[in-house]
Design a protein that fits this description.
globular
Length: 148
């Protein structure tokens, strides 16, 4: 009985290595658990953003952000056999945006998204963002029309 194995490139993290990840039921369960944890933390982030701007709210927000980062880093290390030294190299060499994009890539690949599908989705998102930047008033008009 063969398990599905995904070859996942870590170059988006600045690591020139491809990791073979066996996609097992246990791996899928861990990915789902991680996804639920991230969604809970993102809900909490949204709630905290609605709080008044005071020291406690700001502290709670920063603690939540650190919990998100910690969960991502632990997931990365546990599933891709990234050493503490490699993780530190990643954190010191790429931006937060690059980390988030790379993290999205590896988790999408674990969900069965191919490199081609991922690259197509990225291009479509870039095109959508460019169009929104060029035509911000059209979007406002459309959303106003929807509320009427």
């Amino acid at each position: 009985m063969a398990n599905d194995v995904e070859k996942i490139k870590l170059n988006k993290f600045g690591i020139r290595r491809t990791v073979s990840v066996k996609i097992t039921v246990g791996q899928i369960d861990r990915l789902q658990d991680f996804t639920m944890t991230m969604l809970e933390l993102e809900l909490k982030r949204d709630e905290l953003l609605e709080q008044p701007d005071d020291v406690k709210s700001n502290l709670d927000f920063l603690i939540n952000e650190k919990n998100i980062q910690k969960a991502q880093r632990e997931f990365l290390q546990n599933n891709f056999k990234i050493t503490d030294e490699e993780l530190q190299d990643i954190l010191e060499s790429i931006s937060k945006k690059q980390f988030e994009e790379a993290f999205g890539y590896v988790t999408d690949r674990m969900r069965g998204v191919t490199d081609e599908q991922y690259n197509l989705a990225v291009k479509m998102e870039e095109r959508r963002a460019k169009e929104e930047a060029e035509n911000p008033k059209e979007e406002e008009t459309e959303s106003e029309d929807l509320t009427d």
